[in-house]
Automatic annotation (TrEMBL):
<feature type="region of interest" description="Disordered">
    <location>
        <begin position="245"/>
        <end position="301"/>
    </location>
</feature>
<feature type="region of interest" description="Disordered">
    <location>
        <begin position="29"/>
        <end position="76"/>
    </location>
</feature>
<dbReference type="InterPro" id="IPR001650">
    <property type="entry name" value="Helicase_C-like"/>
</dbReference>
<dbReference type="InterPro" id="IPR050079">
    <property type="entry name" value="DEAD_box_RNA_helicase"/>
</dbReference>
<dbReference type="GO" id="GO:0003724">
    <property type="term" value="F:RNA helicase activity"/>
</dbReference>
<keyword id="KW-0378">Hydrolase</keyword>
<keyword id="KW-0547">Nucleotide-binding</keyword>
<keyword id="KW-0347">Helicase</keyword>
<keyword id="KW-0067">ATP-binding</keyword>
<dbReference type="Pfam" id="PF00271">
    <property type="entry name" value="Helicase_C"/>
</dbReference>
<feature type="compositionally biased region" description="Basic residues">
    <location>
        <begin position="287"/>
        <end position="301"/>
    </location>
</feature>
<protein>
    <recommendedName>
        <fullName>Helicase C-terminal domain-containing protein</fullName>
    </recommendedName>
</protein>
<comment type="similarity">
    <text>Belongs to the DEAD box helicase family.</text>
</comment>
<dbReference type="GO" id="GO:0005829">
    <property type="term" value="C:cytosol"/>
</dbReference>
<feature type="domain" description="Helicase C-terminal">
    <location>
        <begin position="96"/>
        <end position="244"/>
    </location>
</feature>
<dbReference type="InterPro" id="IPR027417">
    <property type="entry name" value="P-loop_NTPase"/>
</dbReference>
<dbReference type="GO" id="GO:0016787">
    <property type="term" value="F:hydrolase activity"/>
</dbReference>
Length: 301
């Protein structure tokens, strides 16, 4: 028997090669991905427009999910009443990227930001704290006790923003993560789907945003096509109405905040009292020994 949260085409190949008449049991429904191609598909996957009007009850650029596409599982042509995830590509100027990300991070609710490198995670979390956003960084370079503090701060709301590498893309379950942001594009479609799977869990819905700059526009489109996901393309600038409507973005407070996951400072120990009384400067050392009789007379001779 094989148990897994993610069963992709590679696993399917092994099943067909080595098993005879296998039976598959899925906890939940199969998925229907809006970007899937087929003979009746009207649009090419990976591209959508903000002006598209989907059918009632369907989120623009969405995919119905369970342990499927957004969670790294298998896509299917079937439909099911499962949570919807809205996928957006926010096209920004390169000079506006940091400001747009800061405004998104300042929103209410738990927000998960994915970046490519450990250095990038630490740097972005620091920059966000400098403008008043309680952000922590999670990556493979942290010790286990540090990771535990980061996750605890994110889970209890002390840190509303978690900046992470792909170490947080799998096996991480935090309730009420309503927005996942691909600040840096993932390396491959599987990473996109695993990152996306951190939202819309346990029957909830969620939004996934990919930050796209002019120099990676083609790469983002190819990534979405390979992941069978349709991205709704929106051009945004800092403070734009559409940016606010999609992500709940708002201007950061601007006042720096401390690292929410930092351990509490240790109480200062009281200074140790000297074991012996210190003599004032110039005071002679007392003589405790008694002089022997006749010692004074001998010393004067």
């Amino acid at each position: 028997m094989l148990f897994s949260a993610t069963l992709d085409d590679t696993i399917d190949g092994l099943v067909q090669r080595y098993l005879r008449d296998p039976v598959s049991h899925s906890v939940g429904a199969t998925i229907s991905t809006s970007g899937a191609t087929g003979p009746d598909s009207g649009n090419a996957p990976g591209r959508g427009t903000a002006g598209d009007h989907p059918a009632e009850g369907v989120v623009p650029g969405s995919a119905s999910l369970e342990s499927g596409a957004a969670h790294g599982g298998r896509a299917s042509g079937g439909t099911a009443a499962v949570p919807a995830v809205a996928h957006y590509a926010l096209h920004v100027r390169r000079s506006d990227k940091r400001t747009v990300v800061s405004e998104i991070a300042a929103r209410e609710g738990r927000t998960l930001l994915f970046v490519k490198t450990q250095y990038g995670a630490d740097k972005l979390a620091t920059k966000l704290r400098e403008v008043g956003i309680g952000a922590v960084a999670l990556h493979g370079g942290k010790a286990q006790n540090q990771r535990n503090r980061m996750l605890s701060a994110f889970a209890d709301g002390t840190a509303p923003v978690l900046v992470a590498t792909d170490v947080a893309a799998r096996g991480l379950h935090i309730d009420d993560v309503s927005l996942v942001v691909h600040v840096d594009l993932p390396a491959d479609p599987k990473d996109y789907l695993h990152r996306t799977g951190r939202t819309a869990r346990a029957g909830a819905s969620g939004t996934v945003v990919t930050i796209v700059t002019p120099d990676n526009r083609d790469e983002a489109a190819q990534l979405a096509q390979r992941a069978s996901v349709t991205l709704t393309d929106v051009d945004v600038r800092p403070g734009d109405r559409q940016l606010i409507e999609i992500t709940g973005a708002r201007r950061p407070g601007g006042r720096p905040v401390a690292d929410p996951s930092a351990p509490p400072p240790k109480a200062e120990a009281a200074p140790e009292q000297p074991r012996f009384r210190q003599r004032p400067k110039g005071e002679s050392r007392p003589h405790n020994k008694k002089r022997k009789p006749g010692a004074a007379r001998r010393s004067t001779r």
